[in-house]
Amino acid sequence: MVKHQPLQVYERQLCLSCLTGIYGCRWKRYQRSHDDTTKWEFLWSLILFGTFSLLLVWFYFWWEAHNDYSEFNWFLYNRSGEWSDGTVPILATTAAGFTYIAFLMILALCHVAVGQQLNLHWLHKIGVTAALLTTIIGVISVTQMWGEEWDIVMISLQATGPFLHIGALAAVTALSWLVAGQVARAEKTRFQVLLMVLYLGVLLALYLAPLSITSPCIMDQRSLKPPPSIIGHQGAPMLAPENTALSFQRALRLNASGLEGYVSISLDGVPFLMRDRTLRRTTDVEQVFPNRQFDDASLFNWTDLQSLNAGQWFIKDDPFWTVGSMSQRELRQAESQRVCSLQHMLRLAASHNRTALLRLHRPPPQHPRYWGWLNDTLETIHLSGIPQHMVMWTEEWRRGFVEAVAPGFQQTSLEKRPVEELHQRGISRLLLRYNQANERDIREFGSHNISLTLYTVNEPWLYSLLWCSGVPSISSEAPHILLKLHAPIWLMSPDEYCLIWIATDLISFAIVLGVFVFQKWRMSGMSSYNPEQIMLSAAVRRSSRDVNIMKEKLIFSVHPLLPPFLVCATKFPASPLPTPSLGGAL
Questions:
Q1: pLDDT of 441 higher than 90
Q2: pLDDT of 205-243, one tens digit each?
Q3: Distance of alpha carbon 360 from alpha carbon 271, whole angstroms
Q4: What percent of the chain has pLDDT over 90?
Q5: Cα gap 309→338, rounded to integer Å
Q6: Cα separation of 41 and 221, whole Å?
Q7: Does residue 456 have a cis peptide bond before it, meaning omega lies within 30 degrees of 0?
Q8: How does 178-207 read in b/e, with b if 16+ C-beta sit within 10 Å?
Q9: What is the pLDDT of residue 531?
Q10: β pairing state of 429-433 and 410-413
Q11: Would you state the torsion angle of the CA atoms of residues 37, 39, 40, 43, taken in this order, to the nearest 10 degrees?
């Protein structure tokens, strides 16, 4: 009597097929393998990880550089002569590349989790190479053209460091499942030791990372100083065209503590406000004076300047992506703006008892007021009626003469110098970029009665960081955002932070220990097996992937305890095999 039973039934593994198919185009069962990854594919795995790490830093850099997008666009304009928002293509390509590489990283980790051999498809290898080279080129380009912006990474870590530490610790803790599984399944002791040392080293480094994390926002709340006063950098340029009367009015309406403007001198000696050397970006000079559009802005007389529109560009280019939120009335007001004179700005500041921060452009040598522009500017300040102590003077040229003519001016330096030298030169204020003064500098200047103003601060996290550091004032293009903050975004005492740190480490350690114990127990029953432990009869169906793997290894390895006809029959697993019964054998 012969009984027919299938040797083994293969269940469809849709998720596994998709996993290996998307990653390595191995959609069929016979294409997959549980063998060790080859050295070549292991190298590509390292390249994939390196690309992911580099893109992560690149993505974080541009995320935090949002504070300086306008500065970056203005920098590109000065190099190319054409205005465009250069951050849009950079952000789009960075987001797309990071998403793609992160997806491949997740697939690779899933391969490790299920014990599949890593075999990245050649199309993905091209994609990874393209992402890596593009990112490297971007990093080199930014370093050469805008190298000082890399400081934003270290500065932002003072605000995000405690939270990034918790996120990184959670990610490494989650990886303990994969590491424990690999250690339990590994046959070579050297590999087990190497993997354990590497993983525990990373874990220990994360456990101790808070020892190197410093932030001014980790402080006793009672030591928090008043918020920095906010000076409107070119007014409120996110709400109205920069350096126009409307922009300054908006800043004053928001209760900004001062106004900052860039001063040029016209051909006939009238000081006016213009940041660029030419009029192409912020006026319609191309339509009104097409033959003079590349001329220096100071080579136009005041009548010609008044004939130009200084607001239409704002509606057209939308430099801060804020035009869409403006009402029709606000749009009409912005569109009708003209070039603003220095006298108008000073009268606005004086009428609201606000400080005026002046950054002056000296005219070119061929300008008729090349030697007299300083007197023209000082006379305009005097005629505006603004008190001298409300004027912050930043021009270095003939500073001694200015001090003699207007002794009440707040002499302000744009260069970071030793305290003794600043006192000798009569400097009472400093105007620096936010990355040029650290927490120690802030304390030192404050202790020597030198007031510090940092520019350009647009993001709440950066404003909060400088608030905790004790900065007395900042210059901002976003006073409408920062003035809404009544407290730093986050503030915690050292004791609270230590409690969070220790609790996070203990929870992570408990989870990692539990995972390793569970994986060891889970794999212990599968580490050794023999034919008697595995039932080849289809009457006993096991869904466990590991049991199926052991069946395949046992069958295809021509085990000496199995008869040859049974081994050959596995080539056709779905066909029934004759199994002689006990009576038939007798």
A1: yes
A2: 999 999 999 999 999 999 999 999 999 999 999 999 999
A3: 10
A4: 75
A5: 5
A6: 53
A7: yes
A8: bbbbbbbebeeeeeeeeebeebeeebeebb
A9: 43
A10: parallel
A11: 100
Mean pLDDT of the chain: 87
Query: What distance in Å separates the CA atoms of residue 441 and residue 466, rounded to the nearest whole number?
Result: 12
Write down the pLDDT at residue 15: 81
pLDDT-wise least confident of 86-95, 396-405, 554-563: 554-563
Q: What count of residues does the chain have?
A: 586
Q: Which helix (H) or strand (E) holds 265?
A: strand 258-265
Checking phi first, is residue 544 left (phi over 0); if not, alpha (psi -120 to 50) or beta?
A: beta
- Tokens at 363, concatenated: 């005219």
Closest Cα partner for 54 from 163, 155, 142?
142
Tokens for 25?
Answer: 């185009």
Cα distances from 90 to residues 58, 130, 142, 148, 555, in angstroms, run: 10, 15, 11, 18, 54
Instruction: Give the span between the Cα atoms of 490 and 160, in whole angstroms.
Output: 10
pTM for this model (two decimals): 0.85
Q: Confirm if 155 and 78 have CB atoms less than 8 A apart.
A: no
Please give the torsion angle defined by the CA atoms of residues 410, 415, 419 and 422, in that order, rounded to the nearest 10 degrees.
Answer: -50
pLDDT > 70 in the chain, percent? 86
The two structure tokens encoding residue 448: 């020597």
Closest CA to 413 of 294, 403, 404, 34: 403
Q: What is the pLDDT of residues 371-396, one digit of tens each?
A: 999 999 999 999 999 999 999 999 99
Query: Which residue's entry shows tokens 């050794």?
Result: 528
Please state, in angstroms and rounded to a whole number, the distance separating the CA atoms of residues 449 and 429.
9
Centre a 10 Å sphere on the Cβ of residue 301 and count the other Cβ atoms it contains. 13
Which residue's entry shows tokens 């120690």? 440
List, as one string, the DSSP characters of 435-471.
GG--HHHHHHHHHTT-EEEEE---SHHHHHHHHHHT-
Handedness of CA 431, 436, 437, 441 (dihedral sign): negative
Structure tokens, 211: 């020892």
What is the C-alpha separation between 106 and 173, in angstroms, rounded? 16
As a whole number of angstroms, the distance between CA 448 and CA 421 comes to 12
Return the SS3 of 392: strand
